[in-house]
Amino acid sequence: MKSFAQLMHSRRSCRKFTQEKIDPEALSLVLNAALLSPSAKSRRSWHFVVVEDKNTLEKLADCKESGAALLKNAAVAVVVTANVAENDCWIEDCSIAALAMQLQAEDLGLGSCWVQVRNRGLNSGERAVDIVRGILNIPEGFDTLCILALGHKASELPLKNDDDAPWEQVHVGTF
Hints:
Elements: H1 4-10, H2 24-35, E1 46-51, H3 54-60, E2 76-83, H4 90-107, E3 110-116, H5 128-136, E4 142-152
Antiparallel strand pairs: 1-2, 2-4, 3-4
């Protein structure tokens, strides 16, 4: 296990994956990280749809104009959705759960990339959330925040550099 500082330096958005499948135990650890993540008032209104079927991954890759094509080559996609009536903090809770999965994936040596779904869509005006709902039979009343692409990295990306940290955006005491 890496230290948290090492994990933050090494986690990068991975958009190119090998064809190697993810070990079921590793996938279970990634999902467990989400299930153990904090949620507002412990409501845990999030739900996760795990997609490994290549045909379904290809359909999901077309849910918006750009930024989703990488799903076609992912070993697994995890669709992060929530029952919005259960919790007004569903966006925050889903974001925390998604990040927990990405950090766990990185710790296991897997690559991941966040594919934004909420407030995205096609040039025709069709909403990405509705496209994903139709593909995966997600019930009405649920909204999808993102899809996480997961897989074995096709290449290693350089570590993040502390010099790139925008410390000018940190304000002490007042803005």
